[in-house]
Amino acid sequence: MTVICNQCGTQFEGKFCPNCGTKAPETPTLLATPAQADEATTKTTVLMQPPVSVSSAEEPFKTPVMKEKKPFYRQLWFIVIAAVAAIAIVFGVVNAISQAGKGQFVWADTVLGKRLPEPPSKYGEIHDDGPERLSVDVKDISKKQYAQYAEDVSGRGYTVDVESSDSSYSGYDKEGYKVDMYYMESAKELNIVLEKPMDMSDITWPTGQAGNQVPAPKSLYGRIEYDNDDSISVYIGKTPKADYNEYVQAVMNGGMNVDYSKDVKSYRAKNAAGWEASIDYEGNSIMSIRISKSSDSSSSSESSDSSESSDSSSSSDSSDSSSSSSTPDTNGIRPEFKTAMDNYEDFMNKYVDFMKTYNGSDMNMVAKYSELMQQYAETQKSFDAWEGNMNDAETQYYLQVQTRINAKLQTVS
């Protein structure tokens, strides 16, 4: 009989283990036969199977039901991607329509554009594009972009007599070209105006009634806009700021000092004879001088003329009056038209000067502002009355006045 050694596990027959010499156990461990091993495995397998309940055994076998799979276009990931794509398309179309409505320009195609850096946006509108003036409204510009563009403009040499704020920039270059820029943050729009130097030459100071109201300036290099007996408009070059200040003082000393208003770059006053003077330092050693009959004086004169005419025959008076009011001067401009334009420009100059120092918390200034608005309504009415009733010379002068006014308004930030 084969037994197993309890000490070393060797199989042997006999009383002692041939390997370690241990005595055979009194109750030997017998090796299982192949048949016995198979039976033990079967029993073990049966014991490892989970118990089957009676109810489960009686239930019929059910085939598993597979859940129906949704098509890809109904799945969440596809819906999300499609929604994002749709939103992007809508925004793209809206933006394209918006930009199309703004219009585009090609900066390189403008006549004077090469004298300035190209703006950061190509959207906007060109109002003037000629050898003497460029006027452009540029849209879609942030305040940061404007600030950088103003630096770029300065870097191109527009550093003479500079006036700047966080929303405006004005200056000349060494050749005399002048740039004016005004940024409107609410509209994200930048207005750019570039003008060529004014043509000037040696002149003779006007000697009519208007010219005799003030002394002739030191420099007689300039340009006469118009010269009439009752009004003149002259630009004088080669006049640095110090010479401008001296001239203003000479004008004051000469009697043009009634109801005067004076600041660093402008002077407004009347004299006892009823004449008005507007003298401005334009920059780049240029000053402008305008002399005219005051509106009060004109009214008195008209009243006097009317009174005198009432003593003569009505037909003769009507003929004389018509001839006087409709006869243009040598420049083709009617005196009454020029007076209306000059009065309007003088008022707007006063308005700009006032607004530069306006403080809404100062009640005196608030009252003055209200007074100015009343004057504005009256002056504007007189100014607008001529629109549509001007000859070519008057239309040109009208545009010159309006251009100067717009340029000054842009300096009010």
Structure description:
The chain is an alpha+beta fold. Among the domains are: 1-31, no CATH class; 107-195, TATA-Binding Protein (2-Layer Sandwich), CATH 3.30.310; 201-293, TATA-Binding Protein; 335-410. The protein is 39% helix and 21% strand. It contains 10 helices and 15 strands. The chain has a 7-stranded antiparallel beta sheet, sandwiched between helices. The termini are far apart. 24% of the residues are buried. The model is unreliable at 40-50, 52-57 and 309-326 (pLDDT under 50). InterPro entries: DUF6591.
Secondary structure: elements and pairs:
Elements: E1 2-4, E2 11-13, H1 34-48, H2 54-58, H3 76-102, E3 124-129, E4 133-139, H4 143-155, E5 160-164, E6 168-172, E7 178-184, E8 189-195, E9 201-202, E10 221-228, E11 231-236, H5 241-253, E12 258-262, E13 266-270, E14 275-283, E15 286-293, H6 295-309, H7 314-326, H8 335-355, H9 363-384, H10 392-409
Antiparallel strand pairs: 1-2, 3-4, 4-8, 5-6, 6-7, 7-8, 9-10, 10-11, 11-15, 12-13, 13-14, 14-15
Helix pairs in contact: 8-9, 8-10
